[in-house]
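Hey, does this match?
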Amino acid sequence: MKMSVVLVGFGNVGQSFASLLLQKQTFLRERFDVELLIVGAADSGIEKNFHSAYSANGLNSVTLLDLKKNHSTVAAYPGAGCTDSAIELIENSNSDLLLETTPTNLENGEPGLSHVRAALKAGMHVVTSNKGPLVFGWKELRELARSQGKEFRFGASVAGALPIIPMGHYSLMGSEVSSIQGILNGTTNYILSQMERKGITMKDALSEAQRMGIAEANPKLDLEGYDTAFKLLIAANAIMDADAKLSDIEIRGIEKISAEQVGSARERGNAYKLIGRADRINGRLEMRVGVEEVDGNHPFRWVNGTWKSVLFKTDLLGEVLVTGGASSPKLTAGAMLRDVLNIMNEIS
């Protein structure tokens, strides 16, 4: 099966996906009878406005990667059509699938929200790693995909490669999920783990994480619990069929946890973890993010470093735990490829 693809967002994740297709093209053809043809690509270039390249015959991934590296934009692709609008590319490409990998905007979800909306209206399937459209437009986009008969997948938006959304949609199929609780942010888990292991302050653990490149220069969204809340919101809406908003979540981060508190918990054999919880109690969904002290009998006690973990509670399958490593552009691209293959499996 061949599928034509428009890739909007050619930063680290978009470039990783293009590289992944080069690496996996023979494997995909021989194992799955799948061929993915990138016919359009758009990036924000050096001017921070979207520029794109399009060719119905396909764009060579090696050329795209070289252009991005040496010219900062894919719009210089030789012989390809070019536009300054990603929306125009989406609407006029007549392609099968949008891969949306622009950075998450947690003020209003744009421009990712408009990209996804335009693609679904144009009759395209959509795979995204962007949390913004899901935080600000989940209900609208879900209904639009259903009305258009198109697939809308976003497994890469929640904990990267950890298959939280696919687990809920496939592996737990037939069960009612009454609770989702998890360590959803690798940066804060690393900081708390280093504080426990080395006895250092949060400031020192954060500096270490920033030197390693696993924490942003401004880590406010991580430390204050908002990144965990965004991921919890997406998971609860998608898996528990909720219609929740960010304002429904009680959010507290790790910023007030001291080295003395961590050390005291360690002496008791326990550890502090930043945990997001969505629990359906007597028909009402309760959601919160906060630091919890877990003991040695809890599976989260031994989830350290940049690892993440989610525990599902179900009526038919009992408790199901999924645990995995850190996120990275390469792993996020792999999660997006997983979503693409699941779409192709659904429609073939």
Remarks:
- The longest strand covers residues 271-281.
